[in-house]
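hiii, so i know i said id send this last week but things got crazy w the move. better late than never?? heres the sequnce for the chain we talked about at the cafe, plus the structure i predicted for it. fair warning i was half asleep when i ran it
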Amino acid sequence: MKGADYILDRVRQNPLAGDTVALYEQARQFAAANASTAARENDDAARALVRLLGASGLLLHIGRPFRLANLVAVREALAFEHGLIDLAFAMQGLGTFAIFLAGTDEMRARYVGAAQKGEKIAAFALTEPEAGSDLAAITTGAVAQDGAWRLSGRKHFISNAPIADFFTVLAKTDWKAGTKGMSLFVVERGAGVATPKQDVVAYHPIGEVRLEGAPGALVGAVGEGYRTALAVLETFRTSVGAAALGMAERALAESIDHTQSRRQFGKPLCDQPAVQARLADMATEIEAARLLVYRSAGRKDGGAERIPLESSSAKMLATEAAQRVIDSAVQLHGGRGVERGSVPERLYREIRSLRIYEGASDILKLVIAAQMLR
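okay and structure toks below
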């Protein structure tokens, strides 16, 4: 495809990409080879993709030595092909990163190591029915009983919930201490854990996590859960922007090919000035998103302890721009753009949730403003 060649050329010319281009190309090849598995869009396909990613070695980038730029490059490449492949990769990292940051060596070997090999599927359980952007409002609790922790509560809209082998769960351990009374735990699937599935606009292995006295292992220190959870979200927020970037790039690639081959009024669509203007807008938004995403990753890898402004800006701009780019792709494809199963139609369903999870755009504006006005 000419469109795909154009995107690859722009990726290679990204001045902020550093040494990630080869990794990007490896991930693109993996995704293309496994696109048919992703196209099945069911829980078995999601499980299979985790195993395939483990065998490929790509999941090694969710553990030590960690580089955010590598995570960004892989997500950009995988999302170009299919959102489910990107999700299978990203959730292995999101579900284990708190363990990577604060867990014991034994925990890292048991959970992060197994996730890297694709042997176990991870999930990150924060959100609740009445606590989404406001994590301080969670009601899931953990109590110490006979030298062990038991968790009870209900998590909501948790990616990988129906298929995960273990969950990193945020719970309250001191109800009077506010956010300083929250701790993180690893909970394995088993007694006291139920995971009813939820359906969303694009296929997603997502659901609730209902805990009823479920045994949990403490990750890090008591009372440090909220701070660690925010560190996880802040890091992975940049990579959500990368996934949106990959989806937008695919939308542009499809639009380039379609407008060059589709003829209307006696000439290719791409010869129409209005079409050229729309393509130019799409390309420019993608260029801006790419630079913000990689700048954020570079700042983290350069030694910055926290990147709230960079990660929020990159995630917000990239996801909002991707929504506009994909909408334009649907428009350029006309009736084919809304035909069930077409690439623009699939992207249109996939992109919407990225503007919500790991920091809704509205909340990220408040984060950005707070950093400006400190």
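btw The radius of gyration is 21 Å. thought thatd interest u
miss u guys!!
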